[in-house]
Each structure stands twice: as C-alpha cells, then as structure tokens.
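Lecture notes, unit on protein representations.

Consider one protein chain, 491 amino acids long.
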Amino acid sequence: MSTGSGNEQREVRISKLERLRAAGVNPYPERYERTHTLAEARGLPVGTEGVRVAGRLMTMRVMGRMSFATLQDQSGRCQISVQCDAVGEELYREVWKKLVDIGDFIGVTGTTMLTKTGEPTVAASSFVFLGKTLRPLPEKWHGVTDQETCYRQRHLDLLMNRESMDRFLFRSKVVSATRAYLEQHGFVEVDTPVLQTKASGAAAKPFNSHHNALDMEVFLRIAPETWLKRLIAGGFDRVYEFARCFRNEGMDPSHLQDFTMLEWYSSWWNYEDNMRFTQALIQHVLQSTLGKLDLELRGHRVDFSGEWPRVSFRDLILKDCGIDIAAVTDANALRAAIRAKGLPLPEAEIKDLGYGNLVDQLYKKVSRPQMDGPIFLVDHPIDLSPLARRSDRDPALTDRFQLVVRGWEIVNAYSELVDPLDQRARLESQAQLKAGGDAEAMEMDEDYLETMEGGMPPISGFGMGIDRLVCLLTNQENLRDVVLFPLMKPQ
C-alpha cells in the first residue's frame, strides 16, 4: 500500500472517529470486563449465554442484515456474528456497517453457536467500541513478510503472523520454567548495576557513556559476574539474574550488542556440580515447554536425553586445526602456526591478540561451527579464562565448561577463582594486554579485588544466552527473530 493511500485511509478513519463521538459513542473507553479469552470462547459448549469477549477485528463480511467477523487476541481468534435483529437497527446500520473498520477493537456480549460449516461463533446480542484505529493493517492475505518490517514494527508482525506471537510466548515460557526451577533449588533472584565504573565480568569491548551528575565515565555492563560474586561474599548461598548485557562488538545472526544473559552463582559447588545441574535444568525446561527431549533443530536431530558427552579444548583444537595448544603456548608462535596451517583467521583480526584470545578465535572460527551437541567443552587454557579457577590437575587449565549445540555456544560456566592473589596477577596480565592493543582484554578492578580479599567460599558460576537458547529451540537463524525490539539503524 502506498503512503498516499495510507494517508487517505487515515483521514477517512479520523472522519469516522468524529462521527462516533458525535453519535455519543466513546471510541476509547477505559475498560471492558471479559468472561473468556477468544480461545476459551471457541471451546465453550454451544448455547453458552452471557459470553463477553474482546479483541481486534481482523476480518469482516457484511451480508445485508447479518455480518460475520473475526476477532483476535493473544490467545488466538474466534468468529463472531452480528445480526441487525439482535443488536438493533440503528447500531447495526449506522455504527457497525458505516463506522467499524478492520483493526478496530471490539467488545461483544453474546451466546455461543456453531455455523453450518461447524465454525465456533459468538452470536452478538450487543457490541461496543474498545478502540478506533487510524491506520489500516497490512493486507490480510500477505501479512507482514518483509523481515526488516517485522523488526521495526514488531506490533504488526505479532498481529499478522501468528507464528511470531507463538515464538515470543514460548520465550516467556522458557524464562518462567527456568526461574521456577532455580527457585525450587534455593536460588534467589537479584538485580545488579547496569551502569558500572569498570567494564568487568568478561573479555569484550564495552559501551561507554558519561554520568553528568557525578562527572565521570561509566560503562554499560558486559556481564553481572563480579557483582553477583560480591553477593556470595556477602553471605548469599545461591543467586541469579536475568541480566541485560551490552558488548560493543560486531553483529551477525548469532551476536547482538545488547542481549539477555542468565547468570547464577552457587556457594560450595565446583564446575562438575554446575555441569550436572545445567544438564538437569535444560532437560527440565525442554520437557516443561516442549514435552520432549528429542528435537529437530535446523534440519538435524538433536537428542538432549541421557548424559551429554564431554570433549577437552586441547583435543578439539588439535582435531580441527592440527595445532597442539599444550605445546604452542606463546602468542607469536601460535600466530605463526595459524599462518602455516592456512587457517581462516584474517591477519588484521589476530595481529594484536594475546594468546588466550588467539586460542579463542581458533575455537570460534574453526571448531565451534562443526560441533553438533549437546556437548560440554572442558579443560580451557588459563589464558582464556581470567576469572576461572585454576585446575588442581593441571595449572595451565581451568575448571570450566561450555555447552555447545548446533555450533552455538549456549552456556559458559566454571569453578570461580576465589584466590585474590591469583586473581590480581591475572588481571594485571589482562591490563598489560589491553595496554598493548587487545581491546577485549579486561581491566584492573580494585573494588572487586578488595571484596575477594575479604574472603570468598568455593563458588561455581554459570552464564547462558537466553536469546540464543530460544533462537535454537524455535529453529530461527537470527537472534533478532527472538528479541521483541532489536536495535535498528534509523531509516
């Protein structure tokens, strides 16, 4: 529909709005008392009286003294019938036929019936306006098919594409099932700062801003990690947060700069305890929301039942890249090995990276895309995990795991580093890397180190991208399809 046509329809609808008011009809009443959702009304026995439903008018067929229409709400759609004899001559001819448009909100009181074709219907004894729309909906036969329009005008996407509504309702069910399971197991939900004075908690580029009242630079949080661990130091046993996080890095279908992360921390656990709990939680969420553990994900069968396999970081890189990271432990030597193997890591991207981030790029660019899953990746190098506990088995490794499914990292978790002197040394090393040009390296955080020096119990922590999990489970290719309002560049 052209802009001109849309503007013309808007003017026509404004004229109808004025006529409604002149006739004493309030086009925007304050409330309406429903007895049933539209989905519930469809399931009522035939002949149920006093049914009150409400929704947006999506289709309308006017046939002389009788009309059929379809209302839509969050639960779905239900047909209504409006007869001149039932609602009154004036209301039918002067309001229903002349002033009602597709997209308007309508409330109906009536009795349930079945049409000759067997369609559940609410036969109206009366109807009321609940909201006059001034802009027409997209053409009903095509819905909203342009992906950019879906992102920019999500309300139209939700209205016209039922699959989108179901997808976002499913996301809410995943969050609810996760929250319930955590709280059943003694976790307490908390909030931590979004504005921070240090970009800490992960190795990533931050968004920065200026706090006018305090006249200082601040950062949007990369992760809530160090703050949640402060709460463990303060005496909480188990804490979690559904945290909006921000990383000023590249965009692609599996990465957004602002995203929702679930993080939790548990006193007394190690990463093995956390791995077992992670598997149990995800299996519970899948069973609660989908009713099964054997799923079809992006054309592949993925079985989440049973015990999930584990693979070491060293074995994975050796298999896929032909480089033994236990033998090549220097950044320059690793760069030389990457060049010699002809691996797909552009020189411009790796020339300033430290050893840990080089290893991470090998994993992300070469190995991870080939992983099916669910697989637990374990035994990460110490340089790759500045906040993870050093392994008692091998001081060059950390007690860490990642959960990978269909080439996407869903979970990152580890036994937390609680030794303040070890943590200080690692942050000093990270600060040197940052000064040398590694923009993703972490900064010193004296406030957090002071908390650590006050004492911390054994801790294991967990981080999971909610957007990624839902994207995977709904067979979407782009995180924007599971984020209601993704950031878009202005048109």
